[in-house]
Amino acid sequence: MPKIETFDASSFWKNAYAHQRGKLLKRVDVPEDQIIALANKKYVELPAALKYEIETSGITKKELQ
Predict the structure, then answer these.
(1) Which of 4, 10, 31, 53 lies at 20 to 30 Å from 38 by C-alpha?
(2) Exposed, middle or buried by CB within 10 Å (0-12, 13-18, 19+), for 23?
(3) Mean pLDDT score across all residues of the chain
(4) To 5 degrees, how large is the angle CA 10–CA 63–CA 47?
(5) What pTM was estimated for this model as a whole?
(6) Does residue 1 sit in helix, strand or coil?
(7) pLDDT in tens, 18-40
């Protein structure tokens, strides 16, 4: 069984600027009206379903730079 690749979202979120967080949220199809509110929250405050979607999306840190 192949190993599932996960994105280290918590460390990215901690070190990222708001526009980088917004770019990540757009990649996982978060509606525009929610992006600003979510980008300004701490990673632990995000909904569990959204965190799961981010971590298993296959996005790499290079894509968000």
Answers:
(1) 4
(2) middle
(3) 88
(4) 35
(5) 0.83
(6) coil
(7) 999 999 999 999 999 999 999 99
Angle at 14 between CA 8 and CA 15, to 5 degrees: 95
What is the pLDDT confidence band of residue 60, given thresholds at 50, 70 and 90?
Answer: confident
Q: Is the pLDDT of residue 52 over 60?
A: yes
What are the residue boundaries of the structural domains of the chain, listed by start? Answer: 9-64
Q: How many CB atoms lie under 10 A from the CB of residue 35?
A: 17
Residue 14 CA from chain centroid, whole number: 11
Gap between the Cα atoms of 24 and 61, Å rounded:
9
50 burial via Cβ count (<10 Å: 0-12, 13-18, 19+)? middle
